[in-house]
From TrEMBL:
CDD domains: UbiB (cd13972). Pfam families: ABC1 (PF03109). This is 2-polyprenylphenol 6-hydroxylase. Residues 91-336 form the ABC1 atypical kinase-like domain. Signal peptide: none annotated. The chain crosses the membrane at residues 489-506. Belongs to the protein kinase superfamily. ADCK protein kinase family. The keyword Transferase applies. The keyword rRNA-binding does not apply. InterPro entries: ABC1_dom, UbiB, UbiB_bact, UbiB_kinase.
Length: 507
């Protein structure tokens, strides 16, 4: 009851804030607390000429850091909002006023347990970047290395926990009262969002992500992650190598430095492919300001707070889906999604393939460099209600990353499609991992694993049978209906265990 009262009051404040920007339409579409939303509508201005997405972005910006993050996450959900609104949210800026340098010094000393002068010979009080969760200061270590120091905002953890509780409460309310939204898995979507945010709140996790990405590209001359200074890193402070390079979104500066934008774009496409399909671990916030081109032409990403993971099966489905779309094979596109379980099996494969064609052909009728796979996938979500498809929250980060990759590619070379550059790598990966030889190899590995499990299953069968035999012996002196039932139950258990052993053998 207390939670409902607390979040009901916060929902009221949120509705009034949205109303002041005439941006109540998301809350109205959810159908929760209609009387409250109708009352908040009284605060809406008249004659606001901004687009709906612009009004919603402004409202979220005013609500603070967690709402800014939520808006960026919603920018991938064209199934919930129109494509125009999603595009406006994608431009939502994660920039808020910096907190004082003196406060940053206090946090660093508290986290590292020693005076700032003991770890840094110089520290710039004015941050070079300030976002919703943290800000970054340049510094020089006592051993003379140029570094960037990321410091978490004071009190940000508590503020996010309160907002996350509100989001969970609203998602639970929607699932209980609005059955038509259940396939979109609102609670699971909030949980995925919360997982990302909580990782961002611990800068040791971000440092670990940077190091893992760096290890994955240790032998790659075209892509690398900055080195982490673990001695100067803690929960609310992260110190890393200062990157000396050109923002990858600044095409003119890249050309002036003597680099070929097309070659840089090719390296981006390869790096994206390797992260998603080879490693299943990718940088999920790759906008133009979060990667640099150094003097050697190597791409160096920064800001590892948002990372994504994709399991091997999902990677296979994604590769098939992407290649099928590029080949305009809509029957294959439909088959992939049926096999992945994204579309219920009682739906018509042919009708779904026709729906995919209706989405794909208008896009593929354009010049190659104007084709947006990320937009195509977003439009596919519009048919989810018709085919009773469930949302896939684990893919939202990837969809967002694909959109960012396309935007970055367009800035570097507007006449080339980044997915066409990655297509040969994806097709080769498909042959290597899903061709006949790979299929036989996986079957052999599964058989070997089944054989290794077989002795344990047989031992378990023996233990269960022996246990039931002793029970039967004890009951033999006084045969009752219960003892006969246990004897039969023992037979059933033995048969089931044998079936499990045979299944392990074949799988």
């Amino acid at each position: 009851m207390f939670r409902a009262l607390r979040n009901g009051w916060r929902l009221l404040r949120m509705a009034v804030s949205f109303a002041r920007h005439d941006a109540l339409f998301p809350l109205e579409s959810l159908g929760i607390a209609p009387a409250l939303i109708a009352w908040a509508r009284l605060f809406a201005p008249r004659g606001d000429t901004r687009r709906p997405g612009e009004r919603l972005a402004a409202a979220l910006q005013d609500m603070g850091p967690s709402f800014i993050k939520l808006g960026q996450a919603l920018s991938t959900r064209a199934d919930l909002l129109s494509e125009e609104v999603a595009a406006d949210l994608a431009r939502l800026q994660d920039h808020i006023p910096a907190f004082p340098g003196a406060e940053a010094r206090r946090i660093i000393e508290s986290e590292l347990g020693q005076p700032l002068a003991a770890v840094f010979s110089s520290f710039d009080d004015v941050p070079v970047a300030a976002a919703s969760i943290a800000q970054v200061h340049f510094a020089v270590t006592t051993d003379g290395r140029d570094v960037a120091v990321k410091v978490l905002r004071p009190g940000i953890g508590k503020a996010f926990e309160q907002d996350l509780d509100l989001f969970y409460w609203m998602a639970e309310l929607v699932e209980r009262t609005q059955p038509r939204f259940r396939r979109l898995k609102p609670v699971e979507s909030v949980r995925a969002f919360a997982d990302v945010v909580r990782v961002e709140m611990d800068l040791r996790m971000e440092a670990a992500a940077a190091e893992e990405l760096g290890e994955n590209f240790a032998d790659d001359p075209n892509y690398r992650a900055p080195r982490i200074d673990w001695d100067r890193t803690a929960e609310r402070v992260m110190t890393q190598e200062r990157v000396d390079g050109i923002p990858i979104g600044d095409r003119d500066a890249i050309i002036a430095a003597g680099h070929d934008p097309h070659e840089i774009m090719r390296k981006c496409a390869e790096a994206f492919f390797y992260q998603v399909f080879r490693d299943g671990f990718f940088h999920a916030d790759m906008h133009g300001g979060n990667a640099f081109v150094d003097r050697q032409g190597t791409i160096v990403p920064v800001d590892f707070g948002i990372m994504g993971r994709v399991d091997e099966d999902t990677r296979g489905y994604l590769a098939e889906l992407l290649v099928a779309f590029l080949r305009r094979d809509y029957h294959a596109v439909a088959e992939v999604q049926f096999r992945a379980g994204y579309v219920p099996p009682d739906q018509s494969l042919e009708t779904f393939a026709q729906a995919c064609r209706s989405i794909g052909e208008p896009i593929f009728g354009k010049p190659s460099h104007q084709i947006s796979i990320a937009r195509l996938l977003a439009q596919m979500l519009r048919v989810t209600e018709q085919f009773e498809m469930s949302a896939q929250p684990q893919l939202l980060l990837l969809q967002k990353t694909m959109l960012m990759a396309e935007g970055m590619g367009t800035k570097l070379n507007p006449n080339v499609n980044i997915w066409e550059l990655a297509r040969p790598l994806i097709e080769d990966w498909m042959v290597t991992h899903f061709g006949p030889r790979a299929t036989v190899s996986r079957a052999a590995q599964d058989l070997a694993q089944g054989l290794r499990r077989l002795p344990r299953l047989i031992d378990s069968l023996h233990v269960v049978a022996e246990h039931e035999r002793r029970k039967a012996e004890r009951d033999a002196e006084q045969p009752t209906q219960a003892s006969r039932f246990r004897a039969r139950f023992a037979e059933v258990v033995a048969i089931l265990a044998l079936i499990a052993a045979i299944a392990a053998w074949w799988h």
